[in-house]
Each structure stands twice: as C-alpha cells, then as structure tokens.
Amino acid sequence: MFHRPQLCHPQWLPPHFLVVFTRFSCYQFHSIIRPRKASSDRQAKHSHGLWNTTQKLFPVSFADTQDRAFMQQALAEAEAAARLGEVPIGAVLVHQGAVVGRGYNLRETSNDPTTHAEMVAIRQAAAALGSWRLNDCTLYVTLEPCVMCMGAIILARVPRLVYGCRDPRVGAVGSIYDFSRDDRFNHRVEVTEGVLASECSELLSGFFRLLRARKKEERKPLSGEGDQ
Amino acid sequence: MFHRPQLCHPQWLPPHFLVVFTRFSCYQFHSIIRPRKASSDRQAKHSHGLWNTTQKLFPVSFADTQDRAFMQQALAEAEAAARLGEVPIGAVLVHQGAVVGRGYNLRETSNDPTTHAEMVAIRQAAAALGSWRLNDCTLYVTLEPCVMCMGAIILARVPRLVYGCRDPRVGAVGSIYDFSRDDRFNHRVEVTEGVLASECSELLSGFFRLLRARKKEERKPLSGEGDQ
Predict the structure, then answer these.
(1) How many angstroms separate the CA of residue B54 from the nearest CA in chain A?
(2) Residue-wise pLDDT tens digits, A87-123
(3) Beta-strand (E) ranges in chain A?
(4) What 3-state DSSP class applies to A189?
(5) Which ipTM did the prediction report?
(6) Does the annotation mark B118 as catalytic?
(7) Which residues contact A218 (CB under 8 A, 6 or more apart)?
(8) Residue A173 carries which DSSP code?
C-alpha cells in the first residue's frame, strides 16, 4: 500500500496531466504531494503510517470534516463522563462510516480499573462486529491513549487512531512511549493527533478546575466551624 | 517503605544481636541479607521493587511454596483455556492469602481482544473487592504480561506480580519493555519471574505443537483427495 503515493508523484506524471489534475481535483492533488496534516486548529506534531484511504478518495476538507464530526461525538461521550464525576474522556469507534462502539471513562462508577473510554468502545465494537479483529475501523478519542489502551488498540488491530490532546504524563502515542512507531509489534496504527485539541483539552482543564474549586469550598465551612 | 531493609542491615545491628538472630531465625535473616531470588527451578533474571512482606514474616522456603502453589492454580486456569482451544495462559489474583480473581485467555471464545487472563482476573478481583485499587494483592500469571495487561496492572495499583515464563515477542516486564522499572508511572510493581517457568513454557509449547500437528493432519486428506 506504500507504493501508491509514489506512483502518483509529479515526477511520474507528464506536465499536461499535472495541469488537468490540478484543475479538476486540486484538493486531492494537494493531499498527494504534501505530507498528511492534522485536521484541526492545532497542528499535528506527527502523522505517519499508512495513507488515509478516505483522504485519497475525497478532498482533504471532507476527511477533516469527518474527523471533526466523529471527534465531536467523542467529546459528547466525555461530557457524559463529566456528568458522572468521572475524568472526562470519551471515545467512539467507527466502522465504514458508522459508529459501532462508544464509551467514556467509568473507573470510579464501575470500580473497574480497565474501564477507560477506549476499552469500553473497543469491547462494544468487538461485540457489535462479532470479531476481535477491528479491521476497517477508526478510533476517535479525546485524550492520547495510555499504555493499556494503546496495547488494546494494537491487539484489536485497529488500523487508525485519531486523538484530541496529548497526555504528557502517561500517553503512549508520542508522550512517554510511542507504540505506533514500534516495529516489534505485529500491527501498525496510523495516527492523527490534534483534532479538536483545544476543545478536548479545555474540557479536561475545566473539570479539574471545578474539582479543585469544590474541594476548596468543602474545606471552607470546616475552617469556619473550627473558629466558632 | 524502602528504608526498612536498610534498618535491618547487619551494619545497624550489634554483633550479639546478629548471633541470636541467626540462631532463631536463620531463614528470615537469610532473606534480609541476601537479594531476593526467584522461587523456581529457573533462576530469576531480575527481581526488584519493594521487599516481599511475606518473605519478611516467614522463611524463604514458605514464600516460595506459596508462590508455587498459586502459580499451580494459574496453570490450572491456563489448562482450562487450552481445553477451549485458546492459547493457554492463566492468572489468579490473591488478596491477603485468598484468591479473589481468576481468569484465562478468552480472546477467540468471547471475540473480545481485551480478554487476556490478567485482565479477566483483575476485573473479577475489582468486582469482588469493590474497588479499582487492588492494594495488598499479588497477581500470578503463567506468561509475562503484554503492554495492555502490564498497563492494567499499574492502573489497578497491583503491588506484586509473579509470572512463569518470558514472552520475548511482546512481554512488557523485561522483554520488549520493562514498565516495572519505569519511574514515570505513579506506581511501582514488584516483580518475581520464573516461578514454575518450565511447566508454564511446556504448556504453551505443547499447545502450539498440537496445533501444528492438527493443521498438518487437516492438510493431509485434502492432498490425498487431490491425487485421486
């Protein structure tokens, strides 16, 4: 699959084809000659792996819109987690354009350390598709996956991962490790980062800001009681 | 907790104490002055983290017997997996001397990529204890955990991990990664490897030998039919 973009590279094409091609599908041509970029307000720090098939079939703007639309759904999942008092992280798993798995962080509610958003979405998708191999799927998650979740993504053979903001503390797709670039695994995951990054990041910051304010508020009456 | 063994080090004790101590509890003293060793027929390649509390309370041989006994239970779980045609890997999770979670590899049967033996045992133990924090627990597993399982072990705050044989292909406790020695995680796992290693390894080799023989057997009649 790697040789395809090379065949379409300008040096393989006659000059007149270049003109016609640029005229009729400048967006698509743009996607061939330039390295893949993140589709969000924040520039991707890295983008690698196999070329996105959607991007080859449609103009860049369409693929970007699609990524943003599914990330919006992941954000809605994250908001559902926040309403339960969980750290707001959400994920959706898309198979051939349809959502087959969705989930949000449920660690405190379920008392299960493995119920991260990605894990819930992967399990749901595997049950829906009747297979542990999640081929032709894209996982959208608001935060960079941890080692457990990235391990599960590789084990489930998810071909593509799109995430919002980085997790510099425990992220395993560029922060403390990068499993997507490790050839020792028998599966490579194509990664796009930074889709709706500021929204994803703001949701998390807002949650922790509120949490700190609540804790401060809880401490206040206690100190007042002590004064009496 | 790290300073405890140092307080018991011979240089902190007067000579007469050394004699009395050696006389009445030579096994225990042996466990203090010498670095921790694996309890199996195969020597541990590494053993680190916090000191084993069981080993401080009982003679080394008792701790070893206990580890071997629980690993036998993990092996029984692995055999149950083999009977279902799954790769034979088993795990038990022990809390204060009692098994609170057990599991075996169920990937093909459940069609869930996350149902590794360790994950099943962790989920069961968390449900049994009513908490995602698996404090005072030891996880016994027949094969070195992968990145997903080792990630879950760290997330669940499991303090001690005992495993049978190494997985040089995807093991994350010394083979391709060693998360137990990574200070960037907010939890350290004490690791003992090599407990009943030959039994664990033989179970896996035997399973794959049988699988290859079956596949060969399946191909035979087909080639015979072709000749007719």
Answers:
(1) 26
(2) 999 999 999 999 999 999 999 999 999 999 999 999 9
(3) 47-48, 90-95, 98-104, 137-143, 160-165, 190-193
(4) coil
(5) 0.73
(6) yes
(7) none
(8) B
